[in-house]
Amino acid sequence: MDHPEAPDDATAPDDSLDSRSLPLLHLIPNLVTLLGLCAGLTSIRYALDARYEIAAALIILAAVLDGMDGLLARKLNAASHFGAELDSLSDFVCFGVAPGILLYHFALQNVAGAGWLLVLVYVLCACLRLARFNVNRNAPPPPGRAHFVGVPAPAGAMLALLPVFMTLAGVWDLRALPLAVALYLAFVGLMMISRLPTISPKGLRVPRNRAVWVLLGVAVFAGLAVTRPWTLLVLADLAYLVLLGQGAWVHRRRLT
Asked: Is residue 9 part of a domain?
């Protein structure tokens, strides 16, 4: 007995296959996240080899890529639960583990016991920060102007590397004060899990009559990034610490 004729649309694309496919553009944010993770892991390698400039630069690169992957996910409408979890795991390595290992090998081996203990405090705080963020990812934003609660993990990593930046910039070689570096590192970790409101780019507003100054500031920033990158990072960290102190003062006034 012959087989029945195939329907006229037998050559049409199979919808079931389309439902299992994924546009290539939707993979780009996750690929950027993986590149950032590679940068963080490679930073650990260079820190172990005492090549601290490259190790610090790779963590900075990971922070830049971390900002890009979220932006790309929103622009390409490619946000997913998988991407969010991947981003969080990458952040833990790049902004928790990598800075801790870099700071330990850079300045804390002379106080190995206390130094490693306070490195663990920093890394665990980064882990708790990211876990809290994951739990509250779908929660409504806090009232008032857009802001973060506590210091975000990438900003925390940049603050943690301030002793490295100061040494590389020739401002102050803080390897002579290992215990102070260890205490500072733990302080940054505690700031990440604090409830202190901190600035968010989404909450920044620029008056129209001052926009030209912002553009000039960006030009100066770009010039320093090319000519004096470590000095620029020191200034950026110090400015951020001043803003954190101001925010803490205002927050305390509101509570009292």
From this structure: no
First to last CA, the chain: 90
CB 103 within 8 A of CB 48: no
Can you give the pLDDT at residue 144? 64
Residues of the chain with pLDDT under 50: 1, 3-18
pLDDT at 253: 77
Note the pLDDT of residue 111.
92
32: in domain: yes
Domain assignment present for 61 = yes
What's the structural domain count of the chain?
1
Q: Say which CATH number the domain at 69 has.
A: 1.20.120.1760
Q: Cα–Cα–Cα angle for 32, 137, 79, nearest 5°?
A: 40
All residues at 6 or more sequence positions from 67 whose CB lies less than 8 Å from its CB, including other chains = 154
On whether residue 93 sits in a domain, the answer given is: yes
The closest of 17, 62, 53, 20 to 157, measured between CA atoms, is 62
* Range of the structural domain that residue 114 is part of: 25-137+144-255
Count the neighbouring beta carbons within 10 Å of the beta carbon of residue 70.
16
In tens, the pLDDT along 94-119 reads 999 999 999 999 999 999 899 999 99
- Cβ neighbours of residue 141 under 8 Å, at least 6 residues apart? none
Structure tokens at 18: 């389309």
One-letter amino acid for residue 197 of the chain: P
The pTM for the full model equals: 0.86
